[in-house]
UniProtKB/TrEMBL annotation:
Bilayer topology term: Peripheral membrane protein
UniProt-listed GO biological process terms: iron ion transport
Organism ancestry: Bacteria, Bacillati, Actinomycetota, Actinomycetes, Micrococcales
Any one GO molecular-function label of the UniProt entry: ATP hydrolysis activity
Protein name (Swiss-Prot/TrEMBL): ABC transporter
PROSITE patterns with a match to the protein in the record: ABC_TRANSPORTER_1, ABC_TRANSPORTER_2
Amino acid sequence: MSTAPAVPPVVPTVAPLAAQGLTLAYDQLVVARDLSVEVPRASFTVIIGPNGCGKSTLLRALARTLKPRAGQVLLEGQPLDRLRGKDVARRLALLPQSPLAPESITVGDLVARGRYPHQGLLRQWSPADARAVAAALDATEVADLRDRYVADLSGGQRQRVWLAMALAQETDLLLLDEPTTYLDIAHQVEVMDLCARLHEEGRTLVAVLHDLNQAARYATHLVAMREGRVVAEGPPADVVTVDLVREVFGLACRVVPDPESGTPMVVPLRRATPTA
């Protein structure tokens, strides 16, 4: 008896998150004009660029915490500004830069706040919420910290707890604004390894990073920005070149294969030594 071949799952062709013709500004300061970008589905997209180029501003617009002056952001093809807040929060989670926890809150209580988008007048705390919180704590390896106060944790532990809160939202999209800021190198790698694992499990991640070599190692898709515009995007091997680093960062360098991952690694050139 013959068996019909398995039908592959249908993958939506629309980008899960996209910006079209954005003008972004703070009061009278215009950061970007006519800015467009698409986040590939199931990618780990990292936005790079020098300070003040608009990286975090773009991420805030994608997360609906900054309203564009012009243009629109699309979430699964729908205008983001036309969706209800809770509808957005069920589909998109944001870890902002340097988040602050309320006074005297435990890890478990903070992570449980990630379930807010799934609750309402007719749906209070449920076994599904408890399971989601437990899964988020396990995924970020902070379950043993559940009863500790967030204020008493190390920087790396706090960052994992905030990630756990975002994971408790159970969204397919996760946005991270400089998730390794203020962390030492060991904790930076710890957080980035966790993000890579979340991506491997099927989530679409979008992160802003300062470290170009970390971005090249972990990203599947890079977006390079300068002065409020996208100057290059694509796989790290295509984007991270000597010319691109010079154009975007004003840095003379060599680009060599990372001996551990094989991804592009930027090695700054030594300054010329003055002659006697």
